[in-house]
Design brief:
Elements lengths: L15 H20 L3 E2 L5 E3 H8 L4 H6 L1 E4 L5 E4 L4 H10 L8 E10 L11 E10 L4 H18 L6 E6 L3 H16 L7 H9 L10 H7 L11 H16 L5 E2 L11 E8 L8 E7 L3 H4 L7 E7 H10 L12 E5 L4 H15 L5 E3 L6 H10 L4 E5 L1 H6 L1 E6 L6 E4 H13 L1
Helix pairs in contact: 1-5, 5-9
Bound molecules: adenosine-5'-triphosphate (ATP) and magnesium ion.
The site of magnesium ion has 2 residues, from loops.
Length: 425
């Protein structure tokens, strides 16, 4: 036999047992964003490399070492999108969606980062995200956080995630803080790990989320960004905190939360779980008022988040939230005897049309009663329907419950009634 070719490391197949779980989560997400009046945007999976370099920042993990970048046949440098915000802004600018307008958008789809694959971290992964444009006040920051909290409620995991919140101030405040932080870190240079030493001059704020224990201990005495905020930034943050409290959303302020992407200002947040080990951040985002301008549009305030779908599905699975997935098949239709095959295919289609939501699988491939019943059972269906020559003559269908109950013969009308009830349960 020929040698089999394997999938690329860190890029996973989603097989039927899992795709059911994903579909359930995706359905919940779609209904949720619709209930908030958000609209979907779909952008290409590949963009010009320059878009991500400019949007995300040259000195970030993503741009420095995680992007899938290649030259296409024209010699253009293209990149598989590592996140969704840059593409959304690019598309919004290109099509005039952002110019003096308000937009509440969402997206869902695959992203690509060349990281070390491990539980909750993959090279192709999926994000669901929302992006809101044209609104500068803290109420919209509160709304996107309420949307995420509503998602946890819908999925029954509100008690398993907690919200961490911080503010980065505006560009000037951040610059002043950055200077103070560099002065402090320079005094303790020998304590810094290699990554942090490198970042000291390129992206010092990132030192704040160093995973190194010595660095973390050192940071306990470092200047705090909150102390560098002006009145407006303080007011924005305080209003957000009040709105969240009014909405009953608990949070902790984490002054070291800075996020890995360069474009954030003011509000930043993460929803974190303790149930997934070190890949505990399920959803992350914040305000990014300068990005639209930075990518060539008119300055437009913006706020959004991205959620890691794999991490969410893992969390739900860990917590047993997929134990009651809907049946893949409600009824399995068997045909006995040559004359019944055509009638069975036809009956199946009639039932699909007359009973909305009913999932009907028709037996194909022939075989005796025993074989067909085996298949019926394996399909997971609740009922087997049997159409034989006798049934055809009498205009009846035999209904055989597969999970307990009496076998009966029903007219087609009575059958349709019964199946409607089955679908509703
Ligand atoms: P991390 O600190 O875990 O690397 P990040 O800051 O790089 O996360 P973002 O760019 O903010 O993550 O992406 C938002 C969310 O997307 C993350 O919180 C996470 O849930 C998910 N995510 C990011 N990278 C991956 C990945 N390689 N595999 C799976 N999910 C990911
Ligand atoms: Mg990362």
């Amino acid at each position: 036999m020929a040698k089999q070719i394997q999938a690329i490391r860190g890029m996973n197949d989603c097989l039927p047992a899992d795709s059911q779980k994903w579909q359930q989560v995706e359905r919940t997400l779609r209904e949720l964003v619709a209930s908030f009046g958000y609209q979907e945007i779909r952008t290409p999976i590949v963009e010009m490399t320059g878009l991500f370099k400019r949007a995300i920042g040259e000195v970030t993990d993503i741009v420095e070492k995680e992007m899938y970048t290649f030259e296409d046949r024209n010699g253009d440098s293209l990149t598989l999108r590592p996140e969704g915000t840059a593409s959304t802004v690019r598309a919004g600018n290109e099509h005039g969606l952002l110019y003096n307008q308000e937009q509440r958008l969402w997206y869902m789809g695959p992203m690509f980062r060349h990281e070390r694959p491990q539980k909750g971290r993959y090279r192709q992964f999926h994000q669901f995200g929302v992006e809101v444009y044209g609104l500068a006040t803290a109420d919209i920051d509160a709304e996107v956080l309420m949307l995420s909290a509503a998602l946890w409620d819908q999925l029954g995991i509100r008690d398993h995630v907690r919200l961490e919140l911080n503010t980065l101030g505006n560009a000037d405040e951040r610059a002043a803080y950055r200077d103070a932080l560099v002065v402090f870190l320079e005094q303790h240079k020998e304590t810094l790990d290699e990554d942090s030493q490198r970042r000291l001059y390129t992206n010092p704020l990132r030192v704040l989320d160093s995973k190194d224990a010595n660095v973390q201990a050192l940071l306990a005495g470092a200047p705090v960004l909150m102390d560098y905020l002006g009145d407006e930034s303080k007011q924005h943050f305080n209003t957000l905190c009040e709105l969240l409290r009014a909405a009953g959303i608990e949070f902790t302020v984490n002054t070291r939360l800075v996020r890995g992407l360069d474009y954030y200002n003011r509000t930043v947040f993460e929803w974190v779980t303790e149930s997934l080990g070190s890949q505990g951040t399920v959803l992350a985002g914040g305000r990014y008022d300068s990005l639209v301008g930075q990518l060539g549009g008119k300055d437009t305030p913006a706020v959004g988040f991205a959620m890691g779908m794999e991490r969410l599905v893992l969390l739900l699975d860990t917590l047993g939230k997929f134990d009651n997935l809907p049946r893949g098949v409600d009824v399995y239709l068997c045909a006995m005897g040559d004359g019944a095959q055509a009638a069975a295919l036809q009956l199946a289609q009639e039932l699909r049309q007359s009973v909305s939501g009913l999932k009907v699988m028709t037996h194909c491939g022939g075989g005796n009663f025993k074989k067909q019943m085996k298949r019926a059972d394996k399909s997971g269906a609740e009922l087997a329907l049997i159409l034989g020559e006798d049934e055809l003559k009498q205009g009846l269908v035999t209904v055989k419950p597969l999970r307990g109950g009496e076998q009966r013969q029903l007219s087609r009308d009575a059958l349709a009634m019964e199946l409607k009830a089955l679908v509703q349960n």
